[in-house]
């Protein structure tokens, strides 16, 4: 049988066109099947248009590819930074205030019950996945620090070593850019740290565009914020969902116990290859962004209606949901 290559190309073109115009849920499903079948970008009936091969310029362990199959929009400029940038010197802390455990260098702290670091927050298992403790009211993790007796091979050093699961940035139908996984990510696995400029809260608010601002948790002082707009890594593109598959924890490994400035994102369930990674921005973010309509497509979405008044059914549902979330953290 002879194959008419022109006809094949035409079929590929119309498939690509169909896929491009399909609703997001259909696209997500197609993306998953493409990944399962091992289809590469730019292969036959691939509809992926890679516009940047590695946004991180080699900073990450994997290339951060940027894909736009939707329109001609390009990324707005920002500085790629895989660590927070502390221009105001807010994180210059005396070393003696750093937490430390007295474990020995030939054990992994997660294997003992006597490690002070592991005892003060949520813990990792032997694969480096988080075992979240619902009683931990600050959603915090205390990793071992440079003053600890253990070595860098200790299993209680995960987020400090950086992101390991490959991800890519893609243009969504209705939420601007988003992040999706290029591999399955197990429950509890570390995805990435939310990086950016470290700012006092007073500077983060005001006239600044706060769409990319994350407030960190300080337990005994003024809060600081991380602004991912001028500088940040791939996590700055993570969108909100009312049914998220990832969760934020505050992690400590180089500062005193009461200051939880590393904002780290972990899988909250198994994330399938090709699935968009989402977190819950929280009711306070949505309260301050009345003009934004949530496009998460979740059937029980809490913010899909215009929220001109802070009353009504959807607001009550949002607050009830937030109370539940806060209780479970
Ligand atoms: C931290 S940025 C996330 C990346 C962003 N989508 C982009 O293109 O750069 C937050 C902004 O993304 C958009 N966004 C995130 N989640 C959304 C959602 N569920 N529905 C609608 N817009 C969303 C909003 O414009 C929000 O201000």
Automatic annotation (TrEMBL):
Q: Which molecular function terms from Gene Ontology are attached?
A: histone H3K9 methyltransferase activity; p53 binding; zinc ion binding
| Descriptive protein name | SET domain-containing protein
Keywords linked to the UniProt accession: Chromosome, Methyltransferase, S-adenosyl-L-methionine, Transferase
Q: What is the lineage of its organism?
A: Eukaryota, Metazoa, Ecdysozoa, Nematoda, Chromadorea
GO annotation (BP), single: methylation
- Which domain of life does this protein belong to? Eukaryota
Question: What InterPro entries does the record tag this protein with?
Answer: EHMT1/EHMT2, Pre-SET_dom, SET_dom, SET_dom_sf
Taken from the UniProt entry, a GO cellular component term is:
chromatin
* Segments forming domain SET: 165-282
Q: In which organism is this protein found?
A: Diploscapter pachys
Q: Where in the cell is it found?
A: Chromosome
> What PROSITE patterns does the record point to?
PRE_SET (PS50867), SET (PS50280)
Q: Where is the Pre-SET domain?
A: 99-162
Q: Mostly located where? A: nucleus
């Amino acid at each position: 049988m002879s194959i008419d290559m022109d006809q094949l190309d035409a079929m590929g073109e119309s498939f690509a066109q169909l896929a491009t115009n399909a609703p997001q849920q259909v696209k997500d499903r197609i993306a998953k099947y493409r990944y399962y079948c091992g289809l590469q970008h730019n292969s036959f009936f691939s509809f992926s248009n890679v516009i940047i091969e590695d946004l991180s310029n080699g900073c990450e362990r994997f290339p951060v590819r940027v894909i736009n199959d939707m329109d001609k929009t390009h990324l707005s400029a920002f500085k790629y930074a895989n660590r927070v940038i502390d221009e105001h010197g807010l994180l210059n802390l005396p070393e003696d205030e750093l937490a430390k455990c007295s474990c020995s260098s030939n054990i992994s702290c997660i294997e003992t019950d006597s490690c002070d670091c592991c005892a003060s927050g949520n813990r990792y298992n032997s694969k480096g996945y988080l075992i979240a403790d619902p009683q931990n009211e600050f959603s915090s993790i205390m990793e071992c620090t440079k003053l600890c007796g253990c070595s860098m091979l200790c299993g209680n050093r995960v987020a400090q070593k950086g992101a390991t699961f490959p991800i890519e940035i893609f243009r969504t139908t209705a939420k601007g850019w988003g992040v999706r996984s290029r591999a399955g990510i197990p429950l509890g696995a570390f995805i990435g740290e939310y990086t950016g400029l470290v700012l006092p809260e007073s500077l983060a608010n005001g006239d600044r565009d706060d769409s990319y601002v994350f407030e960190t948790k300080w337990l005994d002082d003024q809060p600081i914020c991380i602004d991912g707009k001028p500088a940040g890594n791939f996590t700055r593109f993570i969108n909100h969902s009312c049914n998220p598959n990832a969760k934020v924890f505050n992690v400590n490994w180089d500062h005193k116990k009461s200051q939880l400035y590393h904002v780290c994102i972990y899988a909250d369930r198994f994330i399938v290859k090709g699935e968009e990674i989402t977190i819950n921005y929280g009711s306070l973010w949505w309260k301050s962004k009345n003009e934004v309509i949530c496009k998460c497509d979740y059937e029980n979405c809490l913010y899909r209606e215009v929220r001109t008044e802070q009353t009504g059914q959807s607001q009550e549902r949002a607050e009830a949901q937030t109370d539940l979330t806060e209780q479970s953290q």
